[in-house]
From TrEMBL:
Family annotation (CDD domains): AAT_like (cd00609)
The organism's taxonomic lineage, starting at the top: Bacteria, Bacillati, Bacillota, Clostridia, Lachnospirales
Keyword Coiled coil: yes
Coiled-coil blocks: 2-29
Protein's UniProt keywords contain Coiled coil: yes
Organism this protein belongs to: Blautia ammoniilytica
Keywords from the named record: Aminotransferase, Coiled coil, Transferase
Gene3D superfamilies given in the database record: Aspartate Aminotransferase, domain 1 (3.90.1150.10), Type I PLP-dependent aspartate aminotransferase-like (Major domain) (3.40.640.10)
GO MF annotation list: transaminase activity
Official protein name in the record: Aminotransferase
UniProt cross-references to Pfam families, sorted A to Z: Asp_aminotransf
Amino acid sequence: MKKYTEMNKEELQALKKELDAQFAEVKAQGLALDMSRGKPSAAQLDLSMEMMDVLGSGDDLKCETGVDCRNYGVIDGIPEAKRLLGEMSEVDPDHIIIYGNSSLNVMFDSIARSMTHGVMGNTPWCKLDEVKFLCPVPGYDRHFKITEFFGIQMINVPMTPQGPDMDMVEELVSKDASIKGIWCVPKYSNPQGYTYSKKTVERFARLKPAAPDFRIYWDNAYSIHHLYDDNQDFLVEILAECAKAGNPDLVYKFTSTSKVSFPGSGIAAVAASKANLDDFRTYMQIQTIGHDKLNQLRHVKFFKDLDGLRAHMRKHAALLRPKFELVLDTLEKELGGLGIGQWTSPHGGYFISFDSLDGCAKAIVAKAKEAGVVLTGAGATYPYGKDPKDSNIRIAPSFPTLEDLEKAAQVFVLCVKLASVEKLLA
Ligand code: PLP
């Protein structure tokens, strides 16, 4: 088929008529499908159900240091959970704090703490005239919502397949002391599924920020979330790289088992230098008497070690892979060569990033909604919900069944075609 951008007005009008008829047919089906959030499917959640039974009521519910996990105590995680999350994060357990059920919550807290109390003795951000964060775009909407909530000014930094534009990052952080952080999803990024290259990680570790309290918010949410056994991305470990570069305090590395066990009921952790973790602890010991140690114990008993985690992630991949492949095949078959969209083909994570013709994303999402398919809101992948080109859409294939996903993907490509034709005719 001819590229849409090479069609004349008559050809586009004829095409629009055809697409309008197809759209009316789809609408009449009264679909109610959801491709909006990166949630595991019910079948994925079923994979962890045995975890519900690993702690028998008659069992000794003590952790390896003899503390009764049913009671208060052990503020920063039982040792076996630190070991498990340490292996998952590729850091020494001594550099880990285990938190509660959500890493996003810990990111929010870290910003809140920096606002009210400052970072390691520096001026609290709330006392400064200006606080800024760098935001690689497109990125994770919930990161941007946190910085927006605290009134932190966000600066877009373009993403590349190797990671954020590091020339821009280096230039900005070295000159502007009001830049206090950067949001990063370094592996299988949300939404593009890109993994930062070795060079990018090395450049991050060697940053020379003007602000002593600048921190990299390294959200390694998808560290072991591969789709393929034989085609996995590799990410250089940032903490060791920062230490090597003489910048040990530069990074907070977040992780959780949300998309390993149960989202919202997993365990979260932060890895950082000892000085940073001590800073975290001063806040944490006022905030809580301790997190859920029974859940920590449950995770350790169920997964045991990194091999256990990896084996489990292979089961997730077996369920996720066909969904990614279905969406990618549909995009290729229906949109390939038409010149109206580009998309990523990740090796892991939860998302596919789609870029439409400029000025079409909102229309595509609105049309999909009209046809009964909910997509992540257009603009959500940018700070303040403002995509300057109105072109990026995040596709989340994990939650629907394969059958529903097939229908949703067909609706999506139809909406892309229709919105593109309308744009070209406008
Ligand atoms: N970070 C990223 C990049 C995510 O995509 C998500 C969930 O989609 C989260 C964090 C949420 O993590 P948690 O459930 O640990 O709060």
